[in-house]
Structures are given as structure tokens and as C-alpha cells.
Amino acid sequence: MGRLPPEGKLAKPGPQAGSLKLYRQLEIICDEGLDCVISADMSTAEYAHPEALVSTEWLAEHLKDPQVRIIESNEDVLLYDTGHIPGAVHVDWRRDLNDQMVRDYINPEGFAELASRIGITPESTVVFYGDKSNWWACYALWVFSLFGHHDLRIVNGGRDKWIAEKRELTREVPKYAPTRYPVSQGRADGTIRAFYEETLTQCQAGKPLIDVRSPGEFRGEITHMPEYPQEGVLRGGHIPTAKSVPWKTAAKEDGTFKPVEELRKIYVDNLGFESSEHTIVYCRIGERSSHTWFVLTKLLGFQDVKNYDGSWTEWGNKVRAPIEKP
Amino acid sequence: MENGTRIPAIEAESVYPKGLQSVVDLFGSLPEQERRDALVSYADQARKWEPKQGESFNLEDVRKDEECTDTVGVFLKVDNEERATFRVTLGPQVQTLTRAMTAILCRGLEHSTVTEILKVPSDFVPKIVGGELIRVRSQTVYYVLTRMKGICKVYLDRRRAAIAGQRNPLL
After folding, report:
1. How many CB atoms lie within 10 A of CB A216?
2. Is the distance from CB of A286 to CB of A310 less than 8 angstroms?
3. With b meaning 16 or more CB within 10 Å and e meaning fewer, what string describes A58-72?
4. Which residue, of A98, A120, B127, B143, has the greatest Cβ tally within 10 A?
5. pLDDT surpasses 90 at A248
6. In which order are the strands placed within the sheet that holds B59-63?
7. What is the DSSP string of A42-102?
8. Would you tell me the crossing angle of helices B143-167 and B96-108 to the nearest 10 degrees?
């Protein structure tokens, strides 16, 4: 997780040490009053794991890179069919990542089957993008992380940025030769995923809990996300001791992530979260909190963050679960 | 069927307007991928059903509801025989399934009377969208139908009130 890909693995790797140096040089030039344009790649250079984020420019240069597999993951279930980045495959969170019977994720066999179907190997660089500022792309990346796939990246700005830049879309569905992806030993439920009991313990201990839902949901004024009234719960409010930091706090208007210094100011300086402390994030079903999980772990380098995917749809329905309202 | 008695086949009369029935029939025969392609094709046509310049309407209802990700405007024109024509505007964030249902309903309900539209059962929606898409995204598929029925009901209520007012000017 978060490690750099092996040297020479990609024809043109994402922002790494070299671009960091260039970024600093450009800062110096800018200070001297000269005009300059800093590319998205360079602006990501000081993130804790810059390799986890790629720019649309980088992606455009790697569309035909056999090492790279592009995955689109959306809220809008037919959006991929209306046109997608050339070479991208579609992974739907409900159809492909969730168990079809129990509220849970697919098991290691199911993941191996999915990975084999989309033609990736454990060495593949898997790049995710999608609608809604990459909520579902981050969710898919987080689920792939549960199965230990190492080289996982997000396209900064997602689908909207790609389209805003008038880059190519296609309706042609690519076909890749199936692989034999090995079945993982297990699922990393213990390291990056929190369940009810652990979240309750975290709450009772007053340890860091981040509620990334909208302020209205946090306050208990609405029991669903705006636009999703059918996905409500029986009780409104939030988990006691949780701090409200809506996912959007970490994103710019164009859906890209805010620069590292702004993120650090929000989460560390202003709210007092510490990168070494065990932190749990939650939302309604775990998709928006996957976005924040990505921000904390990959961009800010927090070492121990878990996503409570049961989230409010479990907590707000659970008999005797403690609830707080402002 | 007991004792070998055959129950005579009853030709069921369609409960859907003719245009809508033909769409239902079309989708009923499609395998999953072709169903998706057809839905995307309808979604592509949604803009054709926007109001045209100079068109006038009996009722206009443009709003942003919690049920939908962006603003949807429904425009109703009713002719002398009570037959309805719909025009719909969709905000850029409206989801593809909603766009598809917009084109399907504008076409499928065209020239049905407002009374017929109010009686259309919503069970045609899964027949068009398919069990798979209904299962994975149930929240978006009924929205436009609900809005169309809503504007038809308002139209009928106002018309009844107007008729009642004519009969009894003191009302």
C-alpha cells in the first residue's frame, strides 16, 4: 500500500521525486515574478503518496499502456455506457463489489474472479475515475485495497475533469484477455475496515471519529443524503464524539483534491487529527467516507484510518446505538 | 386445468397507452446488454423533448426535488380532446436512467388523455429498465413518471375547479 511502483515499471510514472524537484524550481521562478503554469502532476508532488494520484494528462499518455488498467466507477449506473475513457472497463459498486445476498463485500474468490475478468494481474497499475468527484472511484479503490492489490491510483478530478478538458470518450467496450488473478489470503477487514463494535469502542474512548456526511445529516435534520430519500434510516443524528467534516471539504469545485497544505490545515491544524492516531471515518454507506479515507491515508499520510462502511445506515437503524444531536 | 379442462385464453387488454405498450414490448425482448444500449439511446434523445421556441403550455412545473440530482422542468400541453403532450428540461446532473425514462415517457404517453395518464400503473418501469438495473439503482427510475402524473393531476383539479366555478359563479 502506498509504495512506489518498481523502477522502470511504467513508461512514464506519475509524479515522484523528479517532479517534486521541478515543482520547487517552479516555485522559485514564480516568486521571482515570472509567469508559469504548474501542472496538476506537479501540484500533487507534496502529498504523502503522490503516486496514488494521477492527472488527466498522465492518463491521456497511458491509455495504451498495457501495464495500466483504467476503471470507471460511478453513481450513475448507465454513465459508462454513454461514453467512457478509451480502454476503461466498468466496475459497478453494487453489481461487482458487493455480495449479492449479504450486506458485505465480495470474498477473495469473487475478487479474483473480477480481477481476472477485467484482465489485471497483481502487478497491474489500476487507475480509477468516476462521477461525483470520484466518490465511487475512491470506494472501488478502497475495496480493491481490501484484497491487497498494491498499485491503485485515482484520476484527480475524475470524469468531469476529463470531459471539461474535452478529452476523448468512446462507447466501445474494450475486451481484455482474462488473467488468472490469484485468490488473496483474506480480506483486510482488520486493517482498513471498521465494524460497528470497533466504532462503538472508538466512540466510547473519545478517539477520532469523522462524520463526512452533509451538515444536515450530521445534525439529524434529515435521515438521508439530499437526493436519496429512499435510503434513509430510522433515527437521525451522529455517532457521539464524531466531528463533522463533510467529504467536500477536501475537494475543489472542479472535483480535484485540495493542495496538501490546505488539507493539513483542515484536518490537522484546525481539527486536531493526528496522522499516527487510529481514526475511523463514516458516512451513509461508506462511499463518501472512502473519499475522505483516500485523502487521509494517501494524501496526508495518516497511518491508521479505517472506513466504517456500515456507516449511518447501520448505526441509525441499530437498536440502542448511542446517538447525539447538536 | 383439472380433468383436462382447458381454460380459454383471455386476450388481455393493454393497461398502457399504445405508444408506451410498444416500448414495453420492445424492451421485453431485449437481452441485458441490448437493453442498456437501448436505454442509452433513449437517454441521448431526451433533449429532443425540450420545449421548442414559441410553444405554449397549459402548465409548467420546474423544480429541484430531493428525489433527483438536478432540476427537472415538466411542461404540459393539453388539446381540445384532453390529449397531452409533454416537454421536459433536464439539468446537467440528471442521471442517465432518468434521461432515458424522460424520452420513453414523452414518446410513450404522447396523445394519451390526462385521465389515461393518471391511470397508468407504474409496473411497466421494471419491464423497461429490467430487474438488474432496478435492483442496483431503484431510486431514479420512477421520478419522471411521478412528475408527469403530478402535473396531470394539477391540470385536472384546476379544470374541475374552473368547471365548478362556471356552474356556480358564487364559488
Report:
1. 14
2. yes
3. bbeebeebeebbbbb
4. A120
5. yes
6. B59-63, B72-78, B84-90
7. HHTTTSSSGGGEE-HHHHHHTTT-TTEEEEE--SSTTHHHH-B-TTPEE--IIIIIB-SSS
8. 40
Cα distance from N-terminal residue to C-terminal residue, chain B = 59
Q: Is B141 on the interface with A (CB under 8 A)?
A: no
Of all helices (H) and strands (E), which one includes residue B88?
strand B84-90
C-alpha cell at B123: 409496473
Q: How far is B106 from chain A (nearest CA, A)?
A: 20
B66 touching chain A per CB within 8 A: yes
Note whether ipTM > 0.85 here.
no
- A81 at the B interface (CB within 8 A)? yes
- Judged by CB atoms closer than 8 Å, whether chains meet at A94 and B44 is answered as no
Dig out the grid coordinates for B102 from the structure. Answer: 424522460
User: Is A206 part of the contact surface with chain B (CB cutoff 8 Å)?
Assistant: no
Return all residues near B45 (Cβ < 8 A) that are at least 6 apart. B103
* Residue in this structure with the C-alpha cell 483486510, named with its chain if needed: A188
Set of cell numbers at residue A75: 453513481
d(CA A282, CA A208): 11
Contacts of B136 in chain A (CB under 8 A): 77, 92, 94-95
A210 forms bridges with which residues in the sheet? A243, A281
Q: Is A204 on the interface with B (CB under 8 A)?
A: no
The predicted pLDDT at position A193 comes to 98
CA dist list (Å): A98 to A103, A257, B137 = 7, 27, 14
Element (H, E) at B135: helix B131-136
Give first-to-last CA distance, chain A, whole Å: 37
pLDDT digits (tens, 9 = 90+) for B82-132: 999 999 999 998 999 999 999 999 999 999 999 999 999 989 998 999 888
**Looking at beta carbons, which residues of chain B come within 8 Å of A231?**
139
Number of Cβ pairs < 8 A linking chain A and chain B = 50
Structure pTM?
A: 0.83
From A229, A312, A231, select the one nearest B68 (Cα to Cα). Answer: A229
For CA atoms A278, A284, A286, A288, give the dihedral sign: negative
Nearest CA in chain A to B42: A82
d(CA A218, nearest CA chain B) in Å: 17
The three-class DSSP label of residue B39 is helix
